[in-house]
């Protein structure tokens, strides 16, 4: 951040992050840390992306999304890895790995023959995996 007087946006942003009535906002809800680069996490995301591309024989230009997400539902692991990829236009495939991305190993990915079962049925209304 630059030194000198704060802009109106910067003041509003800092006020928002300080929380209601000046109480500190929980770290999990703060935007700043999420924007910081973590080389180890980036490398883990890249590894899972590369394994997914190889496992399901995806072309170089196929979109692959890998994200580590937090879950607070009972029985849900605190951190899990979600993977989605697209084939044949709008066909989306997805799966979850119930561990942080840094702990994922190549054998955690579903076998390649499961690719058809990973297709998301947008009309079903089911929000699984």
Question: How would you describe the overall organization of this protein?
Answer:
This protein has helices spanning 8-18, 32-35, 39-55; strands at 64-70, 79-87, 91-97. It folds into two domains: 1-36, no CATH class; 39-118. Helix content is 25%, strand content 18%. The protein contains three helices and three strands, in the order H-H-H-E-E-E. Strands 1-2-3 form a three-stranded antiparallel beta sheet, covered by helices on one side. The protein is elongated. The chain has 129 residues and is an alpha+beta fold. Strand 1 (64-70) and strand 2 (79-87) form a beta hairpin.
Provide key terms for this protein.
129 residues; alpha+beta; 2 domains; 3-stranded antiparallel sheet; 3 strands; 25% helix; elongated
SSE order and pairing:
Layout: H1 8-18, H2 32-35, H3 39-55, E1 64-70, E2 79-87, E3 91-97
Antiparallel strand pairs: 1-2, 2-3
- Uncertain regions: pLDDT < 50 for 5+ in a row? none
Compute the gyration radius: what is it? Answer: 19 Å
Strand order of the largest sheet: 1-2-3
Number of helices: 3
Strand content: 15-25%
**Total discrete domains:** 2
| Helix-strand makeup class | alpha+beta
Task: Give the gist of this structure.
Helices cover 25% and strands 18% of the residues.
């Amino acid at each position: 951040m630059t030194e000198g007087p704060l802009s109106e946006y910067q003041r509003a942003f800092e006020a928002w992050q300080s929380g209601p009535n000046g109480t500190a906002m929980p770290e999990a809800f703060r935007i700043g840390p999420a924007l910081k680069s973590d080389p180890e996490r980036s490398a883990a995301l890249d590894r899972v992306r590369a394994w997914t591309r190889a496992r399901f024989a995806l072309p170089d230009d196929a979109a692959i999304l890998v994200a580590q997400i937090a879950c607070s539902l009972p029985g849900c692991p605190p951190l899990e890895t979600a993977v989605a990829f697209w084939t044949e236009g709008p066909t989306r495939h997805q799966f979850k790995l119930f561990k942080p991305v840094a702990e994922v190993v190549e054998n955690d990915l579903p076998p390649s023959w499961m690719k058809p079962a990973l297709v998301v049925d947008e009309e079903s209304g089911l929000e699984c995996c």
